[in-house]
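Exercise 7b. Backbone tokens:
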């Protein structure tokens, strides 16, 4: 596959979900899809964070502990942003002290 074809395919794959969002706006969506869409942000967040957990230079334990604190914050407070702040704060503090 040529680089141009790869870029074109990536553009189409990126554009289609956005187009679907615009087409669905203002329409009645079934309760199943509403529940499904509620989990998209946390799923994307997990997909981005999970591969980085092992880390480098012996930070695996610190990263896992910070991720666990973030997971508890997200679970208890039902807020992704608070979980990100808690996880990053815990990571920075643990890294500084250990």
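Sequence design result:
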């Amino acid at each position: 596959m040529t680089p141009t074809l790869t870029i074109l395919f990536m553009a189409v794959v990126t554009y289609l979900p956005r187009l679907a969002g615009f087409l669905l706006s203002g329409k009645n969506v079934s309760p199943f899809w509403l529940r499904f869409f509620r989990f998209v942000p946390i799923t994307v967040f997990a997909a981005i964070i999970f591969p980085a957990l092992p880390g480098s230079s012996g930070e695996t334990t610190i990263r896992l502990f910070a991720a666990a604190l973030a997971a508890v914050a997200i679970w208890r407070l039902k807020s992704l942003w608070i979980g990100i702040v808690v996880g990053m704060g815990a990571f920075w503090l643990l890294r500084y002290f250990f």
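Instructor comment: The CA atoms of residues 41 and 47 lie 10 Å apart. The first helix runs from residue 3 to 24.
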